[in-house]
Amino acid sequence: MEALEIARWQFGITTVYHFMMVPLTIGLGLVVAVMQTIWHRTGKVEYLRMTKFWGKLFLINFIMGVATGIVQEFQFGMAWSEYSRFVGDVFGAPLALESLLAFFVESTFLGLWIFGWKQLKPAIHLACLWIAVVGSVFSAYFIIVANSWMQHPVGAEIIDGRPVMTDAWAVFTNNTALVAFPHTLLGALAVAGGFLLGIAWYHLWRRRKDGIDTVGADGRVVPGEAAVPGRDLTDYKVWIRSLRIGAVVAMISFAGTAITGDLQGKLMFEQQPMKMAAAEGACHDGTGFSVLSVGNLGSKNCDDIVALIEIPGILSFLANGDFTTEVRGVNGLLDQYKADYGTHLPDSPIYGERAGQEIEYVPVMEVTYWGFRMMIGFGGLAALAALVALWLTRKGTVPASPWLMRLAVAGILAPFGANAAGWIFTEMGRQPFVVAPNPDLNGIDQVFMFTAAAVSPGVSAGELLTSLIVLTLVYAALLVVEVKLLVTYVRGGVVSAMPELAHVPADENEGATPGPGGSGTDKPADDVLAFAY
Amino acid sequence: MELLPTIWFIVIAVLWTGYLFLEGFDLGVGMLMKLFARNNTERRVLLNTVGPVWDGNEVWLITAGAATFAAFPLWYASLFSALYLPLLVVLVALIFRAVAFEYRGKVDSDSWRARWDWAIALGSFFAAFGVGAALALTTTGLPLNANGDREGGAMAWFSGYAVLGGLAVVGFSLLHALAFLALKTDGDVRHRARAWFVRLLPVLLLPLAAWALVIQFLEGKPWTWAAVIVAVVAAAAAWFLARGGSEGRAFMAMGGFLLLGSASIFGAVFPVVLPSTLDPAFDLTIANASSSDYTLGLMSVVAAVGLPLVITYQAWTYWVFRRRVSAAHIPAAHSFLPAIAARAFTTKG
After folding, report:
1. pTM
2. 3-state secondary structure A212-249
C-alpha cells in the first residue's frame, strides 16, 4: 500500500474507534446529569444510585475517549502535514477553541465531580457535572464546525494559494455545521438510550430469574428483596426507571436524528451532489428512492447497477421537499465535476506519484450506498426496539425470556452502528476531496483540496504502517479491557459503584454520602477527597 | 505587522510552560509510582494527589498543540510530521497512562494493579521524554527542506539534543513531583519526598540547565543569558527552601525556575520557531509560518478571555483539594460484592 492509503486507513480506524467512545460520553453524561439533578431536587435514593451506577460506566468509557482524542489532534500534523499547511488558517481555529473553551472545562470539572463528592456542597458538585457535560457538548460543536468546513468551506478566500479566513461568523455558523451539530448530539443520545435500555433490561430480567421479582396473576410485577447487598426494592426502581428513561431517550433522539438528517440531506444535495447521488447509487437523473439496488456498486460503472425496488418521488422529497424535481444522477454530475475541477490531477509535486493521474470523482458506491442505509436502518431498528420495549414492560418488568434479554443487550450496538455508518458514509462520500468544493454558484471558488495532495510528503509508508499497526493493536487490546470492565461493573450492579451499600446499612442517606439537603459542614476531619483511585 | 505572531509565539511558550509546570508533576508522580512508592497504600497516596487534576493538566498539551496548528500551521505541520515516530511513542504512552489512572483501582487484584502501575510509570516516562525531545528539537532544528518536510528518513530527527531534551523533561518532572508530594502529602511520604528532593536536585535539573545553556551558546541574547542565571538562583532557592521545610515556597521556586528556564530557551530562539539544519533559508519563523492576522486576532480575543478563565477555575480545583493526603487517609480497596457473580474479571472480596 502507498502512504496515502495507509494514512487514510489509519484516520478511518482511529476516528471510527474514537467515535465509539465519544457519543456514549456525551449522551450518558447528559443522562447522568439529569439523574443527579432529580436526586438533588427530590432526594429519592434510586436517583442517587442511578447517578452512581451510570456515572461509573460513564467514567470507564470517558477515559477511553480522552485517551484516543489526543491521537486525533496529533495525526493532522503527523500524517497530513500538507492538509494542515493548506487549511491551518481556517481549520486550526475551531480546534484551538475546542481545547481552550471546551476541553479544559470538561476535564477540570469532571475531576471536581469525581473527587469532590464530599468536599463540594451538593449543589456545587451537581453544577460541576453540568459544566463538564456542557463542555463536552461545546467540544462536539467545535469539532463539527471544523469538519463541516471540510464538507462546505465558507468564510475564506484563497490568498497565495491557501484559504485564509475572512469571516469567522460564517465559519462558526456554517449551515452545514448548524444541522450536523444537533444531528450528532441526537445520535449521541440515541447511543445512551440504547445503553440504558439494554443494561436495565438485563438487570430486570436477572431479578426475575433470581426469583427476587415475581409476576402476579394480572401480569403485574411484584418487586421483592434479596439478602444480597444492593438488591432491594430500591434496586428494582433503579432498573425500571433506567429502562424507561433509556427507551424514551432512544425514541426521541431517533425522531430528532430523522428530522435533522432530512435537513442535512437537503443541504447535501445542494453542497455535495455527488455524495448524495452515490448514496443513492443513482446513475441517471430521476425522482425515485432506491430501496434495493443490485449489481456491482463497487465497479463505479453505472451500467452495472440495477435498482430493483424504487419508490418514485421519494428521492425528490429528500432533496427538495416535493415529489417531482429531477435529482441529478452520477452520470450528469460527472461531466460537471470534470468541467469544473479537471479530469486529471495537476502535475504538481504535492501529488507525488499521483500527479497527472485521472481523477475518480465517484466515491466508492458500495460504501456510500450501504453506509447511508445502515445509518438509517440501525437507527430505526433501535427506535423500534425502544417502542416495543416500552410496550413489553408496561406491567412493570421484562418478560422472562432469555432470548429477548439477549436481544435487548445486543441492541446496545445498533445506535453505535448507526453513528459509525453515518460518519463513514459522509467522509467516504466526500472523496476524492479532503476539502470538498462548493459546486453551487454561491460557493467559494478554488477553496478545495484533493485528498491525494493532503498526506505528509516527508513521512514514509513504513512509518505510517508502523503507527497503523501499533495504534490498531493498542486500540483493540484496550477495547477488550474496556468492554470486560464495563461487563464486570454491569454484572456487579449498583453495589459495584456504591461499595458503601455492602458495608453500611442503607438508610435514607445511603451510607456515607451526604444527602442533597446536607450543608457539607459535618464532614469528618480526615475527609480529604473522594479516593476514586 | 509582526505583533500578532509575536503575541502568539508568547502564548504558545506560555502554554508549553504551563503544561510542564502542571503536568510536569503528574508525569513525575507517575514515574515515582515505581521508583519511590513502597507499597500499594503509598501508590494510592501518590495517585490520589494528582487524581482530580491530571486530566485538566494534560489539556495544556492538547491546547499547545491545537494553538500551534491554528497560529503557526507550518510549524505544526513540519514539527509533527518530522517527529512522526517519537510522537507515536508519546501518543501510545499517554493513552496507556490515561487509561491506567482510571482503571487501576477498578478491579481489586494485585496483578491487575501491578500491570497498570507499569503502564503509569512507563507511560509517564515515555511521554515526558518524548515531549522533551520534541521541544528540544524545535529549538535546535530538524533537517527540513524548502517545503518544510523532513529529509533523510524516519530517524533523521535523532540527535544528541533529542536525548538531552528528553532527559531534561524527565529530570525536571521527577524533581517537580518530589516537591509536589512534599507539599501535598503527609507522614512518611512527605518527609521522604523532601529528603529525595534535596538530595537529587542537582542531578535532576542538570539536563534542563544544560539544554538552556546550549541554546544560549547557539542563539543567546543578553536578556536570555540573564534569565538562565536567575533560573539557577531560583533552583538554589528551591533547594534551600526545601531543606528548611518550606515546601510550598520550594514548589513555587521550582515554578520560577521553569518559567525562567523556558523564557531563556524560547526567548533565545525567537523569532525562529523551527530551524532547518539543512539551510537557514528554510527556517520556519514567526513571520513565514504564521496564520493571517485575521485568524490570530480572532484567537487573541478568545484567548484573552479563555486563558485567564482556565487558570482561575483550575486554581480553584487545587484549592478545593488543597488538603494533604496521607497513608492514613487511604480507605480499603473497593472490594465490592457483586450483585451478580462477575465472570469477566474475578474479584477478591
Report:
1. 0.92
2. CCEECCCCCEECCCCCCCCCCHHHHHHHHHHHHHHHHH
